[in-house]
Amino acid sequence: MDYQLVIKFWRASLEDEGFLATIESDLAGVLGEAAALDGYDVSAKEINLFVLTADPRNTFRKSRSVLDKLGIERGVSAAFRLVGGAQFTSIWPLRALRKFTLP
């Protein structure tokens, strides 16, 4: 798995953070062995979920069904990079207005 997909949840757009208790198991069920969840970090403005994968675009596409079901797809952005790399390629939203960064 050459890539790290980062799914960013903007805290200001979330009604609550109760989804954190189950999102990893929900995603694992959808992604199967095509990806490996690699934890998350939390800051004052955002929550970043890390996923190792060989195909980040397809992995995010599959992940969207879980995000939609939880009702949190609006406050999400996503990007990927090579594992250990610094340069992100933004994949969601389709017309990202800001550069994707980690805190």
Q: Can you offer a commentary on this structure?
A:
The chain is α+β, with helices and mostly antiparallel strands and 103 residues long. The protein has a single domain (3-92), classed as Alpha-Beta Plaits (2-Layer Sandwich), CATH 3.30.70. 23% of the residues lie in helices and 34% in strands. The protein is built from two helices and five strands. The chain has helices spanning 23-31, 56-70; strands at 3-10, 35-42, 46-53, 76-82, 89-92. Strand 4 (76-82) and strand 5 form a beta hairpin. It is globular. The model has no long low-confidence stretch (mean pLDDT 88).
SSE order and pairing:
Layout: E1 3-10, H1 23-31, E2 35-42, E3 46-53, H2 56-70, E4 76-82, E5 89-92
Antiparallel strand pairs: 1-3, 1-4, 2-3, 4-5
Helix pairs in contact: 1-2
In short:
This protein has 103 residues and is of the alpha+beta class. The protein is built from two helices and five strands. Helix 1 crosses helix 2 (56-70).
CATH fold category name: Alpha-Beta Plaits
- CATH second-level architecture: 2-Layer Sandwich
**Strand residue percentage:** 25-35%
Number of domains: 1
Shape: globular
- Rg, rounded, reads 12 Å
Helix-strand category:
alpha+beta
Task: Please give the largest β-sheet.
Answer: 5 strands, antiparallel
Order of helices and strands: EHEEHEE
Low-pLDDT runs:
none
Helicity level:
10-25%
Distance between the termini: 24 Å
Record field, number of beta strands: 5
**Number of helical elements:** 2
